[in-house]
Design goal:
The complex is a heterodimer of chains A (115) and B (115).
Chain A: E1 4-7, E2 10-13, E3 19-25, E4 31-37, E5 44-50, E6 53-56, E7 64-67, E8 73-78, E9 87-94, E10 105-106, E11 110-114
Parallel strand pairs in A: 2-11
Antiparallel strand pairs in A: 1-3, 3-8, 4-5, 4-9, 5-6, 7-8, 9-10, 9-11
Chain B: E1 3-5, E2 10-14, E3 19-21, E4 24-26, E5 31-38, E6 44-50, E7 56-58, E8 64-68, E9 73-78, E10 87-95, E11 104-105, E12 109-114
Parallel strand pairs in B: 2-12
Antiparallel strand pairs in B: 1-4, 3-9, 5-6, 5-10, 7-8, 8-9, 10-11, 10-12
Chain lengths: 115, 115
Amino acid sequence: DAMVIQNPRYQVTQFGKPVTLSCSQTLNHNVMYWYQQKSSQAPKLLFHYYDKDFNNEADTPDNFQSRRPNTSFCFLDIRSPGLGDAAMYLCATSRTSGGVGETQYFGPGTRLLVL
Amino acid sequence: AQSVTQLDSQVPVFEEAPVELRCNYSSSVSVYLFWYVQYPNQGLQLLLKYLSGSTLVESINGFEAEFNKSQTSFHLRKPSVHISDTAEYFCAVSESSGNTGKLIFGQGTTLQVKP
């Protein structure tokens, strides 16, 4: 089945130690999104890629970076995690973006714990 | 800017009873409306969406939602719930004229179906 895969499902890191979260997709979608979901809060978009074009949300901290080496993979890098970065990180894909009401397909998420 | 308010954080209900999960949105532009469901330990899945046309939209598992422009609402209903409907439900909007497909989520409503 075509799907969005996130690894690992749980990640523990230390305060200030760089960490990378991974997302892969077999849907061959053009767009990949990263959302942050803190406990009891709404998922919040951090950034997205349309093909190789990177689009950062204005309020995404500089501490968060992303890479998309090819269509299938996208990475979220947190350069110096703080305690406030502990959250569920959701990867999603869509066939295209734009004002067409495209369905986004989500992975199961990676829960990040910062010690 | 858009915002989404889900008025109930938790909705407990007995099996076979009807349920309504409330969602109100705020936007200065036309939007598309979505309901996503998240079952335990799984990613978000699209339940249904309103793009245009009939204001009543249905899902394959018996849920329906009605777009009410005057009340800026998109409440989700099901006439008879099952234990398997226990999950977290997220209402979301995206700009119909935007070019990112960005979803703005509500904080979610946990539906707890009791036997």
